[in-house]
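hey so i finally got around to running the thing on that chain from the lab meeting. sorry it took forever, my laptop kept dying and i had to restart like 3 times. anyway pasting the input first so we r on the same page abt which one it is
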Amino acid sequence: MRTLKTADLFSLSRILKKMNVKKDIKEIAKNVTGLAKEDKAKAEQEMQIDLMMIFIENIGVAEKEIDKLLGDLTGKTAKEIEELGLTELIDLFKELMAQEGVGSFLSQAVK
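ok and heres what got predicted. didnt touch it at all, straight out
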């Protein structure tokens, strides 16, 4: 998976809006704010898992947009993303959520 670019963040923002998960993400982001450095790393890992679960729980609302975004990030077509096995899809979500800056972007996007 390639690194996120600015254009990807716009796509991600539209997906989040369509999923209507602002309140959920805001609650998760609040759990990381103001923690000591050692506690923050663990909380960020938990946040990645929570964000991935929000995506999976709401994938049906923005299925086409998510397939397109993941396709753009991986060099695959949206159709190829649709045909991935569940494990492969979850791995893509994990990789996306683990990218540097995604947590910060999501925290800012919900303010």
